[in-house]
TrEMBL record:
<feature type="transmembrane region" description="Helical">
    <location>
        <begin position="288"/>
        <end position="314"/>
    </location>
</feature>
<feature type="transmembrane region" description="Helical">
    <location>
        <begin position="139"/>
        <end position="156"/>
    </location>
</feature>
<feature type="transmembrane region" description="Helical">
    <location>
        <begin position="257"/>
        <end position="276"/>
    </location>
</feature>
<dbReference type="InterPro" id="IPR036259">
    <property type="entry name" value="MFS_trans_sf"/>
</dbReference>
<feature type="transmembrane region" description="Helical">
    <location>
        <begin position="219"/>
        <end position="237"/>
    </location>
</feature>
<feature type="transmembrane region" description="Helical">
    <location>
        <begin position="38"/>
        <end position="62"/>
    </location>
</feature>
<keyword id="KW-0472">Membrane</keyword>
<dbReference type="Pfam" id="PF07690">
    <property type="entry name" value="MFS_1"/>
</dbReference>
<protein>
    <submittedName>
        <fullName>MFS transporter</fullName>
    </submittedName>
</protein>
<dbReference type="GO" id="GO:0022857">
    <property type="term" value="F:transmembrane transporter activity"/>
</dbReference>
<keyword id="KW-1133">Transmembrane helix</keyword>
<keyword id="KW-0812">Transmembrane</keyword>
<feature type="transmembrane region" description="Helical">
    <location>
        <begin position="12"/>
        <end position="31"/>
    </location>
</feature>
<feature type="transmembrane region" description="Helical">
    <location>
        <begin position="162"/>
        <end position="181"/>
    </location>
</feature>
<feature type="transmembrane region" description="Helical">
    <location>
        <begin position="82"/>
        <end position="108"/>
    </location>
</feature>
<dbReference type="InterPro" id="IPR053160">
    <property type="entry name" value="MFS_DHA3_Transporter"/>
</dbReference>
<dbReference type="InterPro" id="IPR011701">
    <property type="entry name" value="MFS"/>
</dbReference>
Amino acid sequence: MATARSVIWRYYAYRITGATGFYLPVSILYLRHQGFGLAFIGVAQAAFLFGMVIAEIPSGYLGDRIGRRASLAVGNTLRASAMVGLVLASSPVAYLVVKVVWAFGWAFRSGTQNAWLYELLKQYFDESEYARIEGRGKMGLLITSAATAIAGGYLYSIDAALPFVVNAALAALGIPILYTLPAVGDGSADSDDPGGSNDSVFTVREAVHMLRVQAKRPAVRWLVAYAALFNGLFGMTRTFEQPALDSLGVSVVGLGVLYAGFKLVSAGAASTVGVLEEKLGIRRTFALLGPLFGVVYASIALTPLFLVPMLFLYRSTRVVIAPLRNQYLNDRLGDVGRATVLSGASMVLSTASGLANLAGGAIADSLGPVTFLPWAGLTVAGAAGVLWVATSPVRSSDDSTRTDPTGAVSTD
């Protein structure tokens, strides 16, 4: 049997093949330079996010039904194919189709990867270390993205297709690494988890029932709703940050350097996840989000120069709250159907981002991205404050709750 240390290090190696640094600094500019306006870019990003919505539940179910590793391998294949497809696309419809394929690739990773890591730790290490291990994995991913971001800006200046093709090769490399890791918690023949036999098949009906049960639990429902507000804000910011920086005169090579800085600072932030969970706690960390982002986004209205520190903050915060959110949800779920429920949560987050991009694209096209972002931040901060007071989305009283394979709630 694999040792805990070996499993964790191979997991880190797999994580860094998900780095997006080669193409990320130029992904939106690429569409702008193909002649598309912000309104179409908003639609394209919405197509990506709604594609994730469509794929989240099926991909999570497949992760539970056919095996985590097989599902993750499909995701890597689709993402690599989409990166190549983007540079081959020659019409608006083709770009939208590629975005949807790309979204399916990400969906096959989202909930399944979270469930897989949690169960790897449960079998080989300690599942209570999920947030810390995932934070370190994210840190490695971000450091890799930082290094590749600098190269990406340079490659784009040589040939606009190069960043996407090279990043596709990195994604493909993840597949053989993935199959050096154990298959655990699949409930399938692919699993070497002693509890993962085929004696009890997780059916579609059970998956749907479990989602309904979890959606009725306030400790799960309101946390997902609260996180969705900020996911919508982050999704809009990510879509319009490159046009905003371009309007401030930042060059393509400069974008690569700046994105490298984003990733390095985010990597440092990811390393603090365990400390934040221990010292501040998930509840107090999430309570600070509304006031923090309200002030920081509003500062852009004073001077556009505050755009850069705002981008550093939102990216750093995003990598911190994701593992904390997943730790909170994982602690409230049973092993059977875990990936399905986490994919359901990801579906809600993607829906929020998709709607935000659809609405934001037209407004940003009219106002300009630099003028638009402060209003977006203040709106979300206000809504988050109301939701926090009205629902108390992060609750400690439900910590011991688990679900059985049919979704019934029980207490250990």
